[in-house]
Amino acid sequence: xxxxxxxxxxxxxxxxxxxxxxxxxxKNIWTSRKGAEYxxxxxxxxxxxxxxxxxxxxxxxxxxGWETSNGNLRMxxxxxxxxxxxxxxxxxxxxxxxxxxPWTYDxxxxxxxxxxxxxxxxxxxSKITGKLIQIQAGPNWDDDLGGSPVYAQNDRNLVGLTxxxxxxxxxxxxxxxxxxxxxxxxxLNPACVAACPSxxxxxxxxxxxxxxxxxxxxxxxxxxxxCPYKKVFFNWLTxxxxxxxxxxxxLETGQAPAxxxxxxxxxxxxxxxxxxxxxxxxxxxxxxxxxxxxxxSMILDPRDPxxxxxxxQNGIHSSVIEAAQKSPVYKFVKEWKLALPPHIEYRTLPMLxxxxxxxxxMAMQGKDKLVENVSVNLFHDxxxxxxxxxxxxxxxxxxxxxxxxxxxxKVKAVRWYRRAVTVGDVDMATAExxxxxxxxxxxxxxxxxxxxxxxxxxxxxxxPPAHREETIERVxxxxxxxxxxxxxxxxELGRGM
Length: 497
Known about the structure:
Blueprint: E1 3-12, H1 21-30, E2 43-47, H2 59-62, E3 66-69, E4 72-75, H3 80-85, E5 103-105, H4 107-112, E6 124-126, H5 163-170, E7 178-182, H6 191-195, E8 201-203, E9 210-212, H7 222-226, E10 232-235, E11 240-243, H8 248-251, H9 258-261, E12 268-276, H10 280-284, H11 291-298, E13 299-300, H12 305-313, H13 318-325, H14 328-335, E14 352-355, E15 363-365, E16 371-373, H15 389-396, H16 402-422, H17 428-437, H18 442-453, H19 457-460, H20 468-473, H21 475-484, H22 488-495
Parallel strand pairs: 1-14
Antiparallel strand pairs: 1-12, 2-7, 3-4, 5-6, 8-9, 10-11, 12-13, 15-16
Helix pairs in contact: 15-16, 16-17, 16-18
């Protein structure tokens, strides 16, 4: 057992407001520099929608992530043999059109224009060329256009839906959208790390944060094509790759990352998990329908004496273990099984998890022109939701509905139970029966309620002490260990094909 610690995250999609405060906080701190204008380390997408960069989920085009071949893992986009032919041309890279050409406005024209019969206008000017441009796209370009055929109908997660379901999603009475905030997943099996020929990308041994060594980066950009989530960006001014660093300078001083601290809806949770690094390769090789459970099986119980002893022997500080025991992420992912990884079929084993949204209740105008609930019950059945279960399964279940259905049934049961407790207009016996059917209990429902509805910042964000002084002493030992275990196979796989 090779126990390691990993900073991990959970986003509760029913609590995301789509306000983009997190995106602006990140932009102001990290990517307000020249050359990074188009970078959104944190962005919030509208689903159904195309996302940013456009259709980033289309791996037939981008070839991101891993795939299994003859029982082995291989990267879709690159490898030792394939990289040679793409040194000067990488067809898997997103183009500027897939992002957008960053622009500013000709403010001097607005302020200094001579007197005339018309109001002067500040025309858009490209930040790259300095020339006037016609704006065709931008960040969050399809924001709130969940029912638009132009954007929603091109969502890759609509694969497998019937024509009737697709048409219903665009009909005004079923119009639905939810917000999907995204940052780097800081994966356990990061394709970006494996794809880098210069070894500039690496995963910190003490907390699992994936970083880019700017001194070693040589602008190969294979990391961008290899990342299936397109969360690595290229700075056109410095010719270096950049990505979300999970605000590690803030974490090392006990502060929450900027996007977590600024979240208006309190939708973000952060904590440390202990996992068995020896299982990485085995877990990533499972069949699609087995990947979620294989991923969960890697996460270890921080209260298990055997795990604690193995963690201490592997150099993990006791204070980090204590933080893991208080981690809200462990509860959501491992204990309650409410949080699911995005597109686990990419096999990068992401450590950012999402609690799927419980879609709005369907309603219609009744005989007396009053709005009536379509469902006979207060809360509709999850299969009556506006958003088809297949869509959520494509996003969070590798196309399989079982794990998503389990999570949503438990979320619904908790809501029903709390309605019985606080309002009393639904039967308590029915609520408790629903909890049992959802593999839950009143005690667990209260714990879920407290952590989702009544939590303070210190409940949502549990940051382990950094202990950087011990980490520096172990750098050489850790590098040697990673060559023989865990992350070492990433580099070998990435460069050996």
